[in-house]
Every structure is written in C-alpha cells, then in structure tokens.
C-alpha cells in the first residue's frame, strides 16, 4: 500500500537494445504528498528523466508502478502535465493559441467559449505573458517560451506538474525570475511538483524535499533531504541562512563525495553533461 498522492513503488527500468541489456533504475520508492514540491537531483545519465517519463506515462516501468491520486498510471494524461527544458511550443501558433489548444482539449466540452478564453488569459497572466498574446514562439525569448509552456501546463489543472530541467537553458537572471514566479504560483495553487534539476541552489530554494539519486547503472534513491525552510523564501536572505547552507552542503557532499562521478563521459552526451556539470559546480 502506498501513502502518497503520487507514489512510485518498486520501480525498475531496463532498456534492451543493440548494445545489450541496460538496467537503468532499481527499486525506486517514493511517496509524494499532495502539494509537495520535490526535486530530483543526480549525476548526468543516472536516470532522472526516465523516472519523470515513467510518471508521465511516456515510458512503462519494467516492473513496479506509479499511482497518482489512487489511480495507476498506464499512459500519458492531462492529470500529469510536463514542461521540458527545451520549450515544446507549436511554432505556427501564437502565444495565446499555444495555451488555447490545451484548454480546448481539456475543457472544450465542460466550459463555455467565454470561460475558456478567460481561463487562457488567466494562465498567461499568471506567468506575466499577456503583453505578447499574438506573438509567435520565434518572436519571443527563451524565458518567455518557458513561461508559455508553464502556463499551458497549468491551464490543464494537472494533479502533478512534471518539470524536466525547466530553467536549464536559461541565463542566470532569467532563471532566477522564473524560479521566483514558479515559487509564487505554487504557493497560490498548491501544485504537486516533481522537478528535475542539476542546480543545487535551485533544488534547495524551491523544494520541500530533495531526492538524490545514486549513479547508474541500476540507479536508485540514495538519500532524501527535507528542506525545513519556511515559505515564502527569499533568495538573498537565504544566502546567509544556516539551514539553507546545511541543506546545500548535504547535497554537494552526496553528489561530489558519496556519488563522485568517476567514469568518462560518453562522447554523445559530452556537451550536455559538461554544461550541466558547470552549472552544478558553480552552485
Ligand atoms: N528510450 C531509451 N532507450 C534506451 N536507453 C535509454 C532510453 N532512455 C534513456 N536511456 C538510458 O537510460 C540512462 C538514463 O538516462 P536519463 O536520460 O533518464 O538520465 P538523466 O539522469 O535524466 O540524464 P541527464 O541528466 O543527462 O539528462 C542513460 O544511460 C540513457 O542512455
């Protein structure tokens, strides 16, 4: 029996391909309470996206399972909205239309046209994007695209919001602004969030708990760190906060001492991995 609003129970994941059998995840168990903000952190390639994709229903676990609000996950669904690092807006639709398309799909039969329009505008207002309703994705910045992606995800009223490195491709200032917006939105809406990050500060700043994964193959959860900091959190005040710095230190110790990455980086992943390592080391 699981106790979480979102529960992963004994999740194993093995990929079989030309290069043989690759056990990526082993015995992942996690109970997430309703309204909880969880970050998933671990070295590149350990299996974080695989966990998120299993929760999203994009991948089926080799064994074990996922439950969201007492229902087993067996396919993608609007109750689990995903925001990826590389914004996935439809390039031929405007900002408004990119949110509208989700709202039409979910609420096309249950809300009037006026209510749907208001809901699209409400979600775009939440991420401060009402000034650019008629612009195409090619006409707005990377940070703005992420804002629209977040508005689209929120407009679906998901039970669980899945964020796969949502701020990873943004410059530091834009990232900080967007983090603050997501923190504000989460405090208003009480979303249940599972977020992948490589940024230790981001994990501590935003999360109620930080889930640290061991290195692969056969990665599992190595440590779960509660972040007992009151909300709202102020990033400037936190820089001097003992609890904040203790949490940060715990994660750094896990990543760079207990789970120090020793193997060479695979050629195909090298640029992505180096960029992420750089972010993490600067943390
Ligand atoms: N569809 C797939 N088929 C085969 N192998 C896969 C598939 N998806 C992921 N893998 C493998 O699973 C492992 C974990 O990948 P995953 O992308 O989940 O890691 P990650 O921790 O999210 O990495 P990163 O931080 O670099 O994004 C890797 O070895 C990857 O090659």
Automatic annotation (TrEMBL):
<dbReference type="GO" id="GO:0015112">
    <property type="term" value="F:nitrate transmembrane transporter activity"/>
</dbReference>
<keyword id="KW-0813">Transport</keyword>
<dbReference type="InterPro" id="IPR003593">
    <property type="entry name" value="AAA+_ATPase"/>
</dbReference>
<dbReference type="InterPro" id="IPR003439">
    <property type="entry name" value="ABC_transporter-like_ATP-bd"/>
</dbReference>
<dbReference type="GO" id="GO:0016887">
    <property type="term" value="F:ATP hydrolysis activity"/>
</dbReference>
<dbReference type="InterPro" id="IPR027417">
    <property type="entry name" value="P-loop_NTPase"/>
</dbReference>
<feature type="domain" description="ABC transporter">
    <location>
        <begin position="8"/>
        <end position="240"/>
    </location>
</feature>
<keyword id="KW-0472">Membrane</keyword>
<dbReference type="InterPro" id="IPR005890">
    <property type="entry name" value="NO3_transporter_ATP-bd-like"/>
</dbReference>
<dbReference type="Pfam" id="PF00005">
    <property type="entry name" value="ABC_tran"/>
</dbReference>
<dbReference type="GO" id="GO:0005886">
    <property type="term" value="C:plasma membrane"/>
</dbReference>
<keyword id="KW-0067">ATP-binding</keyword>
<keyword id="KW-1003">Cell membrane</keyword>
<dbReference type="InterPro" id="IPR017871">
    <property type="entry name" value="ABC_transporter-like_CS"/>
</dbReference>
<protein>
    <submittedName>
        <fullName>ATP-binding cassette domain-containing protein</fullName>
    </submittedName>
</protein>
<dbReference type="InterPro" id="IPR050166">
    <property type="entry name" value="ABC_transporter_ATP-bind"/>
</dbReference>
<keyword id="KW-0547">Nucleotide-binding</keyword>
<comment type="similarity">
    <text>Belongs to the ABC transporter superfamily.</text>
</comment>
<dbReference type="GO" id="GO:0005524">
    <property type="term" value="F:ATP binding"/>
</dbReference>
């Amino acid at each position: 029996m699981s106790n979480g609003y979102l529960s992963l129970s004994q999740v194993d994941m093995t990929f079989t391909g030309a290069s043989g059998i690759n056990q990526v995840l082993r015995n992942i168990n996690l109970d997430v309470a309703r309204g909880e903000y969880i970050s998933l952190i671990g070295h590149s390639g350990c299996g974080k996206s695989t966990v998120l994709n299993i929760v999203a229903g994009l991948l089926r676990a080799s064994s074990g399972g996922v439950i969201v609000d007492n229902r087993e996950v067996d396919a993608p669904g609007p109750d689990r909205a995903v925001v990826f690092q590389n914004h996935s807006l439809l390039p031929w639709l405007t900002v408004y239309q990119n949110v509208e398309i989700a709202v039409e799909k979910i609420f096309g039969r249950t809300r009037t046209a006026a209510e749907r329009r208001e809901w699209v505008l409400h979600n775009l207002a939440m991420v401060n994007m009402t000034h650019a309703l008629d612009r195409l994705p090619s006409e707005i910045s990377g940070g703005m695209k992420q804002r629209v992606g977040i508005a689209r995800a929120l407009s679906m009223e998901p039970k669980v919001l899945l964020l796969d490195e949502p701020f990873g491709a943004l410059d530091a200032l834009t990232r900080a602004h967007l983090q603050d917006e997501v923190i504000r939105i989460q405090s208003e809406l009480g979303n249940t969030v599972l977020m992948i990050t490589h940024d230790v500060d981001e994990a501590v700043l935003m999360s109620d708990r930080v889930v640290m994964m061991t290195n692969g193959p056969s990665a599992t959860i190595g440590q779960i760190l509660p972040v007992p900091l009151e909300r709202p959190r102020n990033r400037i005040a936190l820089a001097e906060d003992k609890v904040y710095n203790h949490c940060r230190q715990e994660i750094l110790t896990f990543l760079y001492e207990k789970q120090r990455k020793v193997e060479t980086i695979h050629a195909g992943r090298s640029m992505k991995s180096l960029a992420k390592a750089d972010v993490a080391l600067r943390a």
